[in-house]
Design brief:
The chain has about 400 residues and is an alpha/beta fold. Strands 4-12-11-10-7-5-6 form a 7-stranded mixed sheet, sandwiched between helices. A 4-stranded mixed sheet has the order 1-2-3-15. It folds into 2 domains: about 160 residues, Alpha-Beta Complex (Aspartate Aminotransferase, domain 1), CATH 3.90.1150.10; about 230 residues, Aspartate Aminotransferase, domain 2, CATH 3.40.640. The radius of gyration is 21 Å and the shape is globular. Bound molecules: pyridoxal-5'-phosphate. Pyridoxal-5'-phosphate (PLP) binds next to α5.
């Protein structure tokens, strides 16, 4: 029996390390907002591979970009100039606060790199003693030793020895007094997600982000945003910081920018990046021609006139439909949160979000659990209106079924 047959027919293979509790479904192909499993069953994908497939599955423009590049050149290393990298960097610079971009392959790498950038910034500014970073409980910055320490989530730190030093993890976002009190002579930067994704779609208020900007300026700190999940149109803006009317000094991105191809990056102003001189950081694969071909195609699509307005329009409609579901299921749904197509359905304590995710799967609707008992609805940004409506119908059925389990 071939490995593929085994995987499709008799449950998860023990050959794959068991770090994930996986659902027993194997997807064979995708079409827009749909995934089709090996049995030919169709699922409406409101998880987008955890906010990754921003332009849906098997997007013709992305296929063409990747196929064209695949015929020409896959990889050269960063010992040489990479044309696609220069193009994507210049586009990101033209459309954000940033002047400089470093490419890597994942969100964790982007966050890890940006931590290095912050420390090097202070070092290059004559303050090597400033190397600590203020972060927040409920955050997620990835699974490297540095980024699990940055987020301070005990569940992800357990059993890995002493957490990497240099992080002051505050109890909550949206408390400026707490941040002000935590700033000391060793503080280098403040790092925050504008909306905590894994943590349960918990948003920083506009006032909090503006306050962080002011505190960073007053104390010579960098303000670092982790927009790995919120970026590239997910919230209806190209980046979530725009809605707060502030500019960060540095920002990590990944997920959506690759549309399903592994791409990560960190962006910074010239000033913030001044410590990142030759030899300070690197990546063998980062910004390779295949990744850059796809990244450029994704950004091009998202920057097309009207694309983000369309995301905002869809998002409004989606929220209206979800508000009705909340009314219908007021006994178990506590609230609907989020911005754009980054939406969280918070269920009351008597119903576990994980059970709702399972009930959605049974309705062939893919959703993603998050902290704080939240079900994430993060469909492709290109999902047609009627499919958004269909997803809401399936969610409502799933909630009815999840309710039946409650004793
Ligand atoms: C997913 C995520 C990361 C980590 O990205 P990986 O690609 O899984 O390493 C970091 N920060 C945020 C906000 C994320 O949502």
């Amino acid at each position: 029996m071939s490995a593929a047959t085994t995987a499709a027919s008799s449950g998860p293979s023990p050959a794959v390390m068991g770090t994930y509790g996986r659902y027993d479904v194997v997807f064979d192909r995708g079409e827009g907002s749909w995934l089709i499993d090996t049995k030919g069953e169709r699922y409406l994908d409101f998880g987008s591979g955890i906010a990754v497939n921003a332009l849906g599955h098997a997007n013709p423009k992305l296929i063409a970009a990747l196929a064209e590049q695949a015929q020409k050149l896959w990889h050269t290393s960063n010992l040489y100039r990479v044309a696609g990298q220069e193009k994507l960097a210049e586009r990101l610079v033209a459309t954000t606060f940033a002047d400089k971009v470093f490419f890597c392959n994942s969100g964790a790498e982007a966050c890890e790199g940006i931590i290095k950038l912050a420390r090097r910034y202070q070092f290059a500014s004559g303050h090597p003693e400033r190397w600590r970073i203020i972060t927040f409980k409920g955050s997620f910055h990835g699974r490297t030793l540095g980024t699990i320490a940055a987020a301070g989530n005990e569940k992800y730190l357990e059993g890995f020895g002493e957490p990497a030093p240099g992080f002051d993890v505050l109890e909550t976002v949206n408390d400026l007094a707490l941040v002000e009190k935590a700033i000391g002579p060793a503080t280098a930067a403040i790092m925050v997600e504008p909306i905590q994704g894994e943590g349960g779609i918990r948003a920083c208020t506009k006032e909090f982000l503006q306050g962080l900007r002011a505190l960073a300026d007053k104390n010579g700190l960098l303000l670092i945003l982790d927009e790995v999940q919120t970026g590239v149109g997910r919230t209806g803006k190209l980046f979530a910081y725009e809605a707060a009317g502030i500019k960060p000094d540095a920002m990590a991105i990944a997920k959506g920018i690759g549309g399903g191809f592994p791409v990560g990056a960190f962006l910074a102003t010239t000033e913030a990046a001044k410590g990142m001189v030759p030899g300070t950081h690197g990546s063998t694969f980062g910004g390779n021609p295949l990744a850059m071909a796809v990244g450029n195609a994704v950004l091009e699509a998202v920057l097309e006139p009207g694309f983000l307005e369309e995301v905002q329009r869809k998002a409004l409609r989606f929220k209206q439909l979800l508000a009705r579901v909340q009314d219908e299921h007021a006994d178990i749904v506590e609230g609907i949160r989020g911005e754009g197509l980054l939406i969280g359905v918070k269920t009351k304590d008597k119903v576990l979000a994980g059970d709702v995710v399972k009930a959605c799967l049974a309705e062939h609707l893919l959703t993603v659990g998050a902290g704080d008992n939240v079900v994430r609805m993060i469909p492709p940004l290109t999902t047609p209106d009627e499919e958004l409506a269909e997803g809401v119908v399936r969610l409502s059925r799933a909630l009815t079924n999840a309710k039946k389990q409650v004793k």
